[in-house]
Amino acid sequence: MAAPARKKPVKRRRSPIQSRGQATVDVIVEAAAQILARQGPAAATTNAVAARAGVSIGTLYQYFADREALLVEIGRRHVAEMQAVLAGALAGIDGLDLPAAVDRLVAAIVASHRVSPRLHQALHQSLARDHLDTIDAFEVAVEAMVRQALAARPELDLAAPELTATVLVRGLGGLIRTTIRREPERLDDPALAIAMRAMILGTLAGSRRGA
Amino acid sequence: MAAPARKKPVKRRRSPIQSRGQATVDVIVEAAAQILARQGPAAATTNAVAARAGVSIGTLYQYFADREALLVEIGRRHVAEMQAVLAGALAGIDGLDLPAAVDRLVAAIVASHRVSPRLHQALHQSLARDHLDTIDAFEVAVEAMVRQALAARPELDLAAPELTATVLVRGLGGLIRTTIRREPERLDDPALAIAMRAMILGTLAGSRRGA
Amino acid sequence: MAAPARKKPVKRRRSPIQSRGQATVDVIVEAAAQILARQGPAAATTNAVAARAGVSIGTLYQYFADREALLVEIGRRHVAEMQAVLAGALAGIDGLDLPAAVDRLVAAIVASHRVSPRLHQALHQSLARDHLDTIDAFEVAVEAMVRQALAARPELDLAAPELTATVLVRGLGGLIRTTIRREPERLDDPALAIAMRAMILGTLAGSRRGA
Amino acid sequence: MAAPARKKPVKRRRSPIQSRGQATVDVIVEAAAQILARQGPAAATTNAVAARAGVSIGTLYQYFADREALLVEIGRRHVAEMQAVLAGALAGIDGLDLPAAVDRLVAAIVASHRVSPRLHQALHQSLARDHLDTIDAFEVAVEAMVRQALAARPELDLAAPELTATVLVRGLGGLIRTTIRREPERLDDPALAIAMRAMILGTLAGSRRGA
DNA sequence: AATGAATGAGTTTTCATTCAT
DNA sequence: CATGAATGAAAACTCATTCAT
């Protein structure tokens, strides 16, 4: 059920001992993320990153064994940020009734995808297959969360709650990413949110044990 | 409604009307597609492509202005192939009742995504942003098709048929692509097809004018 | 009895098809050998070699997979040249009586070591352990030759002819190389040749079955 | 008679008279020697040396002006060690008769070459031409010693005692080093020691004034 | 004295692309 | 049209060395 997972370990290098080093790492990662988001993967050469970070190329390699390690670190931080946004937008959802909870979920997932969508896509394009799980981690987490939420509502009477969670989350995620890529402005259209709610509620209804 | 779309034109070179040239183009495109699918974007250098095609690098540039043009052509053919598979799997769907039609649709979309999924992903990773619409064309076409199909069934009484089509198609597509990438073997699981049907039918029911 | 020999194969690249390519290879190899001999291993960067050869760096890598492959090729040619000189200087040795033959041999080995001694040493310094056998090949060949020559003179009555050959050749070679490195001008000293003859004849006499 | 010898001076930094500094120097030198011997010249970067020595890179440069200075110091110590082994193995040789003395000498030279042969070779490969005399110093000393020993035995009646010493020592040294590099295990073969004795005694006999 | 973060010139190597034959 | 030798800008990465703390 799990993915192949022969991911070769990401080679980090010197974990900074002094606080100065930590600041440098941040500067580098942010510079790289910016270039990636604004100019795309091809522009994010290690030299360009170092230059924009205001750091020498040697310094970059003090902290990252190679370009891929830098990309992975960006991915990790990006996922963490998305998760933070999601968690924030999801606060207090437990007390809500189903329709309200679904609205919250939709809003939360959309909000989390608004975090640097260009970076998100650039990471998808530049990470090696071995490391794509770094960004997949976000959706994996969301799936777990939704799975749990569905389990907590037995009144939904789902035939296969876990599968339903998977289908919902992946479907929703794909929909949002495709829309961001092809029609970014449309993400603000309230009609879309309504349609997504309809999709979720409908899917839940259609996934009942009896159906 | 559409994306920014300042796509720089794809420079193709002499369109070979003669059969000899056509054959050469085919050989090149197939060689490139194979490398892309089997070894990934990084391995698909123009020299490697020419070598595998059994053609000199000069000949490659006789037919393609640059590497990107070659990638775009591969994308076009890949999309055409997916569409062909889709069309084949969809034959006779018009006469079916809704549940049967939905099953057909699910099967058809899944089938079309089985066409070189590795190539599909490689294209996603290697095409420049300007040219991603080449592969997006597939889903655009499916959306149009589904939009039409929904319009032909007024008894569904949809509040926003076009939007529902969009949501369904993009959601389904994203779900399938994510699953292929992360759990490829799961695509064969009949439970998944059932869940997808539930999602579609549920979404249609949940998108009624009254809901 | 043989060396470990897990030598990783030398990656050559395109063997030139056109004669132009062969000429290019020659130019590159000669440029590299010159830099190596005159300025030492550190100066023989691939860029410096390409520049001196009047060729672009890309061309160098068309013919040599990496720097090491170039070094190995230089080594091969150097050894071939040494062997050619040796063979030339050894012509007609078979008919001579022992003292005359020994003189010839000494002169021949000395002469072969006069072929680019600086290059010889630079190769010793720059070749990876895996590839040192490339230049060792010369002495291996000389050992074989001398072994055969000793075998052809049973009147020498050697207790261990093969070992004697080994000792003689390696001793002689080391003596010559050390002398070249530390007192190059001394190689012209006739007294040295006389001393080497004494060493050889003495060693042969001292290695008799009875001794 | 000597080599060109325009050796640029080895810049050492503060000679640490205090024991703390001396200990640090020792640690650094030993770390470097170990890396050199085990992993070869390429692995012996200054940073790697400092790391293995458990010292900061800054400290390394406190004691050595540059990498070359460190290498030279390693060379000096290595030579000292070889000489110590040689001296130890040679103790009491003066009282022996010729054959016994020769056996002693052979054993002693072999023993001294067993001191870190990998390091010996690594030094040969990494020292700049200007500093090769650092390790050549060993053989220079041996030559002096043998020259003296031969002078002390006028009964040998040598035509050119000094030259004979040179030829013997360099030949022997080259033979041993070549054998170590190409067939290390053979150094333990008693037959080789016998052959070397034959070579020495034979050479002495063949180098008589009358010969 | 010791530290270790930072430097950046310099190295190897790749690969899309051109053009003389 | 086809060939393939040649190009060279540019990429990733290394490592000896410096210097502020």
TrEMBL record, chains A, B, C, D:
Entry keyword set: DNA-binding, Transcription, Transcription regulation
Residue span(s) of domain HTH tetR-type: 22-82
The keyword DNA-binding is assigned to this record: yes
One protein family per Pfam: TetR_C_15
Residue ranges: DNA binding: 45-64
UniProt xrefs under Gene3D superfamilies: Tetracycline Repressor, domain 2 (1.10.357.10)
DNA-binding keyword on record: yes
InterPro entries: Homeodomain-like_sf, HTH-type_TetR-like_transc_reg, HTH_TetR, TetR_C_15
Name of the protein this chain belongs to: TetR/AcrR family transcriptional regulator
Organism of derivation: Nannocystis pusilla
